[in-house]
Every structure is written in C-alpha cells, then in structure tokens.
Amino acid sequence: MIFRLLLIILLPLFAYWLAQRITRHASLSATQKRWLVISLTGLLVVGVLIAMGRLPVQFILAPLGLAATSLFRLLPALLRFLPMVQMLRGRAGASKPRQPGQQSTIRTRFLAMSLDHETAEMQGEVVEGDFAGRPLVSMSLEELLRLLSECGADGDSVQLLQAYLAHAHPDWEESAGTNKRAESGSYEEMNRAHALEVLGLEEGAERADIVAAHRDLMRKLHPDRGGNDYLAKKVNAAKDFLLE
Questions:
Q1: Which residues contact 51 (CB under 8 A, 6 or more apart)?
Q2: Is the pLDDT score of 199 beyond 80?
C-alpha cells in the first residue's frame, strides 16, 4: 500500500521533470508542446491507474512490446527514407515566405547591430566605451574610426563595425589611411539565444524557419554577391548551431 502511494506521488513529479528536460534540450513549436503535454498526461493517467491497481501492468507493457517489435522490423526501411525526408524538409524551408519586417540582431561587447532582412539596411548603437548610447548613424567617420580603435580587444566588435563602415562609408579605408584596421582580439562563442537573434527568429522556431531565414540573409550577405564576409560567417554559424 505504501509503495503504491509513493508511486502515485512520484509519477507526476517524474512527468514534470521529463517535460522540463525535453523542452530545455529540444526546440519545440507550440503545437509540439501541446502534443507533448497530451502524451505525458495520458501516460501519467495510465501509470496512476496501474499504481492504484485499476489496470493490469500488461495494459501498457503489451502495446509497448508490440510497438518496439514493429519499429525494429521497420527500422531498415525508415533509414532508407530518412535522406529523402530531410531533402523534402529542406525544400519546404527554402520555399517558405519571409515574415514582413523581420530583423536580425547581432550583439557584441561594444555594439548592438540590427539588419533588416528585406532591405539589408544596417543600424546600430554603441553599448560600451566612450561613445556608449550613441547611434552609429549620428557619428562622424572620424568618431567611428576612433570607436574602431577602441574596439580592438574584441574581435566581434571590430569586424561588425568594419561591416557597418563598409556599408555606410564605402571609402572608409582610404580615409583611415595606414591605421584603417584595428587589431581583432577575442571572439564570442555561439549560443542558442545569440543564434536566434542573428537569424531574426524567436524561441520555438522550426527547421523550416531556420532554413528560410538563412536563405534570405545569405542572398544579401554572401561575399560573392557584394555582401560582408564576417556577417555571412555569422549567419552560417547561427544556422549550423541551431540545426545541429
């Protein structure tokens, strides 16, 4: 009796822990989260009924055994179709329409930069240093070059500002003379939150959303099309991180 009571108490706790672990390690859409809750709730109800003695253990073990046997038999066929499924999903993502007004955000130690997916227009603000709080558009070329020198210890800030200079002041290297490029220092490692910002996506974005956002950005940022090498690498890194 005590064992059954303890089992009834532990089952909801285990279901809650399992749901939190799945949502923490997997990018689920709202629909997938609803199905996860429904599935765990159903299993929890069955588990509680078994623990109370209202259902025999075979009620759940028999279907699980049958499902495992069927899956084992179908596994070779499923593996053969897996590349085709991935190809179809990639095509679906590539054809997905762009969301109006979608923007990417790249944050570094010194800068917060936004990039419009439709126009490729760049806007930024200084977040640290002597020019903190200043929008980049309000700064003269001389001030931007001073900021570039100030960013020297942070490699991401240096390259991001150089990308902005190439966009807003195409001749900035000639104006800067011999000191046109600051030394680039350390680089920030990619993480999930940063990757979503770079692609202009929200938590819960599906594979198709990631593929579509990456496609739209690379059309404008690829170096072979007059884009920026640093931004293109950043977008590629964000896509690879999220898909892996």
A1: 4, 7, 8, 11
A2: yes
